[in-house]
Amino acid sequence: MEKELKRIIAILVIICILFISLIVYLSYFQVFKADKIVNNSYNKRLWINEEKILRGSIIDRNGKILAYSEKSGDTYNRFYNYGNLYSHIIGYSYREYGKVGLELEYNKALLNISESTPLKELKNVVIPNTEGNTLKLTIDHHLQAYSREMLKGKKGAIVAMNPTTGEIYSMVSMPDFNPSTLKEDWNDIMEDGESPFLNRATSGLYTPGSVFKVIPTIAALETPGLDLEYECTGSTKIDGYVLKDYGEKAHGKVNLEEALVRSCNSYFAEKGVQIGKDKIGEVADRFMINSPIPFDLPTAKSTFPYKGNIGKTDIAAASIGQGKVLVTPLNMAMIASGIANKGEIMKPILVKEIISPEGRIVSTNHPQVLSKGTDIFVANEVKNMMVEVIKRGTGTNASIKNVRVAGKTGTAENPSGKTHAWFIGFAPAEDPKIAIAVVLEEDGTTGGKSAAPIARNIIIEALNSI
Amino acid sequence: MMLNKKVNYRMPRNLLVLFELMALLLLFIYDKENIDKFTLISVISLIFIIYISNFVLLRISTGDNYIFLIVTMLISIGVVMIYRIDSTLGMKQVIWIGMGILVFFITYLLIKRIKGWENWAKLYAIISIGLFIATLILGTKRKGSINWIQIGRFSFQPTEIIKILTIFIISAYYSNYEKYKEKKYGPYYLMGIIYIFIAFLFLQRDLGTVLIFYSVFLALQFIYEENRKLILFNILLFVISGIAGFFLFDHVRVRFEIWIDPWKYIDNKGYQITQSLFAIATGGFFGTGIGLGHPDFIPEVHTDFIFSAICEEMGIFTGIGIIMLFLILVYRGFKIAINQKDKFFRIVALGISILFGIQSFIIFGGVLKMIPLTGITIPFVSYGGSSMISSFIALGILQVASEELDVEEKRYGEGT
Q1: A244 three-class SS
Q2: I want to staple A345 with a disulfide (CB 3.0 to 4.6 A). Which of A338, A390, B238, B333 is the partner?
Q3: Does this chain's domain A44-135 share its CATH topology with A144-465?
Q4: Does the beta-carbon distance from A34 to B326 stay under 8 Å?
Q5: Smallest CA–CA separation between B99 and chain A, in Å?
Q6: Is the Cβ–Cβ distance between B298 and B283 less than 8 Å?
Q7: Of the candidates B284, B288, B365, which has its C-beta nearest A30's C-beta?
Q8: Region A144-465: CATH code
Q9: CB contact set of B243 (below 8 Å; sequence gap of 6+)
């Protein structure tokens, strides 16, 4: 009997463990997994709300309506007023194809459905919620349209933002698509080799080329005792690997400013190795490379894998923005903003306010410092060098009469064989109002020649209209 | 008396009525257009029947009166949910519950009056095999398993009855263990019978039930088998047949694949389980409230997936509550077994408790995607006549087992 009792209790214990594991799993599921599952576009409950609630509008910073819904019969239809222009910002919301962009990320706000609590459910029974919230973006419709015009017929991305608040003024990624005619175009878009669905501004990972040199420049200024002079002969040999300057041009005796102004590759390759991977990596980390950028849209992570086992040639290549470095245009715009904003990098903002159907502001995205890139002295020094780049260096095509522009060009070698043309910059240098990153993907030209004029035009337009 | 009679049963009984009345009120608000006089009368009479049954049981049975209370609580939650999903099914379920309670009392009286249950192992085995063969010949296929017999408008699942008969066979075998041990091949009788049953279940493609049979058998064997090697052998065979099933039967493999990643098959094979996960995730801790969710998106929600519907509309706190109720039911069952002096009824009590426990665990875990899904019902909660009746038979037997039975006569020796 003693043995029997022991065994009975053993079985009881096993059953108890099974049941308790059920309870634990159920709680775990509810706390950690439920949110993600509920938002799966296959969840018909999301669409049930859609049928009862007028989806909110999306407006630009000046109140221009970009997307809205209208009731026709029993169903609500969604209208996108500007076709391709906002394909990568607003995205789309269709039963058949699901949701992307802000339509997905702000679905709950647009439908005015909050976390379900018994009290709110009860309130909903008494006063049914029939209208969603409006999203007010930081985008300036005029600048957005202008930016897209600048990029028309090309591949690439433009991000223009306010360096002191982090507000995005325009964000364009090409090629794009038309959310209004998605049903007709779906098959073509899916078969298009240039992936029009990819938001290159936030998720495109590009070799940065020389625009990345601002990172080793900051690292150099932060390294005490580093010899900033160098005799450039047009090429340098690091660990048996030859790094050439553009056109193998010898720049002669250069200091840091001259090196940045003339985009001297051998200078940065040599100095990068002297500074060391850890210091450059640390500066890159502060400028949000290697960490996910919190944003209203999904973002890809820029990478500079300096912590791994990398050799001297890799460090040299990284110092001129080649090799293993990959960045997103949004990240580069933030780096330019950081230098413009006294070293402080602001969190990028796309949705300024959520406004209730009654016109009350439900929530506001306040400017927020995301990371401290460098101190104000180093930031100012780099800014002055970048002003020189525009005045007499590779970026003269971005210069504007009466406005001091700061910038850096880049021409990035990549596996496609055709270079990416880059430009990052901001203006006016003494009181920056706008920061910008332009990338022309596989354009085959230099950044100074093709990307700089685009940036210049957008900066003029922004300074005049915002 | 074995259990303290002084325990106050009145309070939980009254709380139960309160719960039922409030649930009725809620349903009334939710579905006021469809509630007619007939519905109202039948529901109120059900509440009355449950109350009276709890009351009567206290008078006639000297045993554990909590198990019936727990079960009536489970039934109440289940029927509210079923009615909310489909009012016609809800009304049918009310009738099934009424019949179930009647069957419970009949079983209770029969099992108590008739003596010698431990001597008829052969009879149980013959009836079981008869039912199995009948299922294979007359059975109709539902959800990929052949486990229903249709007679006229009435259909039932023979395996529901065979489960109980199997527990009786195992109990009869181990309570007459000494006698069987002396016979040639005696020690293997039981295993032979059980494996024949399992083979039949495999033929019917009823995997959930195979799992239940195996678990009950293994657990009881673990407690009573003297030849410990046999247990190891059975566990080994369990694993081997699981692996063999994976490679031999498509539907086993499919179940497993869906379990690993249902999202990949969200349009077809994984539809049901992903809908279940949506429902549970939507409910949150407190649920959407009765009538405010969409459990009707889940196919078969009133039977196998009733738990997901409950979690969506009543919240996972109610879900956890149901799991706890089953845990208490199983605990009471074990307690009954430990206190029972009659060996046959001791093993029967254990078998029934393990049956309730394992069956509910398999389906709770299944709809939560904690373990692969096999379509079986939750005893007392899911919609369904066979399941309701057989669960009440099992409960009636457990009620008898909770009482002190006369054990002075040693009954083995004559006739098996």
Answers
A1: strand
A2: A338
A3: no
A4: no
A5: 30
A6: no
A7: B284
A8: 3.40.710.10
A9: none
